[in-house]
Amino acid sequence: MAAGKLDRIIRIRRATLVDDGFSQVEQWVTLPEKIWAHFADVSDSERFRAHQVQASLTSRFQVRYSVLTRAITPKDQIVFERRIYDIVGIKEMDGRRRMLEITAAARNDLPLLDQQVFSDEFSQEFA
User: What domains, with CATH codes, occur in the chain?
Assistant: First the structure.
């Protein structure tokens, strides 16, 4: 894939265990590295469960194979355009360790990440 098609920036969120004094709890940490990606929506859906509507959006992200991207697992999340995507699957695109295709799903019925909170989260990580 040509570098010009990798025109979007994504970040990875990883769950870490943190001791809160009573037990170990899971806390999400956004990794500071930016990853250039190609983005495409695959499908959207809407479900009605327990008298609530839940909307989801499935998308694909194509990224270059690197030390950082090969460590991505389905336990991680993608942050893209103030929305959090849960990773559904990861596969090599060409079998030659050049590109990875990540399929991920986001809930459309949840509010977007607040721009101020989103900015503060990254500024604290670099402090």
Answer: 3-17+24-111 (2.40.10)
Tokens of 113: 């990440």
Report if pTM > 0.85. Answer: no
CA-based Rg of the chain, rounded to a whole angstrom?
A: 16
Other CB atoms within 10 Å distance of the CB of residue 18: 11
Q: Which of 41, 16, 52, 19 is nearest to 104 (CA)?
A: 41
Q: Quick check: helix, strand or coil at residue 125?
A: helix
Q: What CA–CA distance (Å, rounded) separates 87 from 55? A: 16
d(CA 41, CA 38): 10
pLDDT tens digits, 17-28 = 888 888 888 899
47 vs 90, higher pLDDT: 90
What distance in Å separates the CA atoms of residue 101 and residue 48, rounded to the nearest whole number?
A: 30
